[in-house]
Amino acid sequence: MKPARSERVKTALALGVLGGALAGALSAQEAEDFGFGEVVEVQLVNVEVWVTDGKGRPVNGLTAEDFEIVEDGQTVAISHFAEVQQDRPVKMSFEREPLPAESPQTPDIQPGHLVLYFDQLHLRASSRNRFIEDLRDFLVAEKVPPERVLLLSQEETLKTEVTFGSSWPEFDEALDRLAKTAPAGGRVAAEKRLAIRNVELEWLLAQERSAAGAGGGVSNVEAACDVFLPRAVPLIEAYARESQARIAVSLDHLANAASFLSGVPGVKTLLYVSDALERAPGADLVAFIRHLCVTQQGAPLLILSNELGRDFERLTRHANANRVTIYALQSLGLVSGVTGGAENASMDFRGAAAFDSAVRNNERDGMSMLAVETGGRTVFDRNDFGEELDRIAGEMSGYYSLAYEPRHGGDEGEHEIKVRLKSKNLVARHRRGYRDMSSEERMTERLQAAEYLGLVDNSLGIRLAAGTPQSAGGSMVTLSLYVLVPVDRITFMPAENQSIARLSVQLSTRNIKSQKRILERKVFRVPRPADLNQEMIGLAMKIEAPAGIHLVAVGLRDDATLESSFVSTTLELNASAQ
Question: Closest by alpha carbon to 262, among 71, 451, 84?
Fold first, then answer.
């Protein structure tokens, strides 16, 4: 099942203009606390598990009795179990008593979706384009149908190249465009080489100065370190700060992708394509100068790794909450070390082989964390990616699906997951934890799915209507937008000697040009209409935004039943509106 796509319109007037009959239906008021009882939303935690033997081969035929799930150190009951296999129906069983039949929650087992994510900030054109050619062959073979593939590219901004529901020719055209762009990875790699060269030059100069000061042309390592460290540390700090800022951009956009993928059903496999992603930029250079100056281990060295480390952890917990499994693929392939270039051929670079290894490991460290923490894999040291792509496609449709009810619900805390196997000879790969989101956060992320991907889920049958745009001065435009809700789709509860419904609305607008996003929230109390023939209730929201084209997404939740609807459209706001 592929996700639904919205029918976007081009102008505000296409949404419909309120007439007199509709205006009489606008009886909703913004809600205050009026004694509505709390509704507890129970969310199943779904855990996909890939099981292999000692040789890395997939293992089939296990049952729920072969697994144990531990959350935060405590064993939890497996309420749902299924073995998903590529060419056979899903086989389901239960280890323990299943959830009651009236439970609104069922295990979410649907065909997987593949997200191709090109991090242009950390890719080089040559390696990226080599991977693109292997990717073309993979897509043509339709191991994953193209309508279930999303193509994203990210530099300073995140761009949707091809969305779900597209065809192979659309992907072919998008890959052609992508192959012609100039990614920033080459410049980033040059900055790394320059930082290394500058540190080494400072070491050579320090040796010369200490030798001259000692007399007789004899170098003293400790004296050289006294000269070297005060000059080398600022160079590393500057490199680390620049790298950290760039990496933070990639992490922010990955988190954004994890958010709007929440509206895509089933398992989401995100293939992160990059040449490097450091978790502790500059740590390899710090290790090198500590290797040079072994007698000065206590020298103050600043590495901006703690903040990035927390960002990586937040990202993986966020991805796990939305069932996004990350596979990290380094398109660079097999290459020589950074100290093997012609510019370093005459350098006296102590421990060059060990340093090359430290650089390579540091550049892969962030990619490894993304994969390991979310239950995915890394693909390193490959020049041909066809076999790995086929393997990823197989893992998308061959796994064990386990689910359980947590003891908490929407506590916004972070929780650790461990899956244990009865057999000690087997290995289980799975996401290692998640952050439990509140119902408001889940609603916001579903709203982003409607906004970014046009995914519609409209079980409540809501519609949008617009008033007349008004100039707000300068380039700003004000527009009243109305969410029209069928009366017979919402639940009215006794309160204050009358029957009322409590409806939560979120409205998001994003400027196509600037990508600036505005989020508005309102909660409405809606009395049951006295007119039994009234079919719709209108909830008024207001947009104030600069002139231009905006993506607008609206989410509405009936707080009595927690049933939600999400729709999106496109508005063109005219600065000359009166």
Answer: 451
- Strand, coil or helix: 43: coil
Strands 324-330 vs 378-379: parallel, antiparallel or unpaired: parallel
Distance CA 167, CA 220 (A): 67
Q: Is the dihedral of CA 379, 385, 387, 393 positive or negative?
A: positive
DSSP string, 70-139: EETTEEE---EEEEEETTEEEEEE-SSPPPPTT-S--------EEEEEEEGGG--HHHHHHHHHHHHHHH
Structural domains of the chain, with CATH: 13-40+439-573 (2.60.40.1940), 45-110+400-435 (no CATH), 185-394 (no CATH)
373-430 per-position pLDDT tens digit: 999 999 999 999 999 999 999 999 899 999 999 988 778 889 999 999 999 999 999 9
DSSP strands (E only) in 136-242:
149-154, 158-162
What digits encode the pLDDT tens for the residues 428-455?
A: 999 999 999 888 888 999 998 888 888 8
Question: 362, exposed or middle or buried, with CB in 10 Å at 0-12, 13-18, 19+?
Answer: buried
Q: How far apart, in whole angstroms, are the C-alpha atoms of residue 55 and residue 428?
A: 13
**Cα Rg of the chain, angstroms:** 28
Say if residues 28 and 528 touch (Cβ distance below 8 Å): no
| Distance, CA of 564 to CA of 560 (rounded, Å) | 11
Of 232, 168, 246, nearest to 201 by C-alpha is 232
- What does the longest C-alpha to C-alpha distance in the chain come to? 105
CA distances for 177 relative to 116, 139, 153, 172, 174, angstroms:
15, 16, 11, 9, 5
Angle, vertex CA 326, rays to CA 320 and CA 330, nearest 5:
155
